[in-house]
Amino acid sequence: TEDVVEKIGVKKSREVLDQADLILLLLNNAEPLTEEDMELLETIRNRKGIIVINKMDLPQKLDMTQLNNVAEEFPLVTMSIKNEKGIEVLEEAIAKLFFEGQLQSDDLTYVSNARHIQLLKEAKGSIEEASESCDHGLP
Fold it and tell me: Does the global pTM surpass 0.70?
């Protein structure tokens, strides 16, 4: 990317990959795999991860055969955040990793306080709104 802010974000993301218990690699269904996507797939190889393909509501440009060939060890989840479809499938994929023993209970943070749960839901909504604004070119 040529965007300075985006470059900083990418750099910081790569710095924390080694600390992650679970990696969710988000790919855009409306774009073909990029060289950067391929580098990220190689970087996360042999790690616990899920490939999340978003924007399934748009025409497909992502080559699923190519993706399956380079990322066959990862579960694939398709979704459309805009249409709120597939979120439950992602939740199930994460739960499956947990119940299969690939994620340990001491690796996870549990939230049981009702106020904290509500605040997390509000934060999620704000993040979704910000994402949609970015998709529409709004500041």
Answer: no
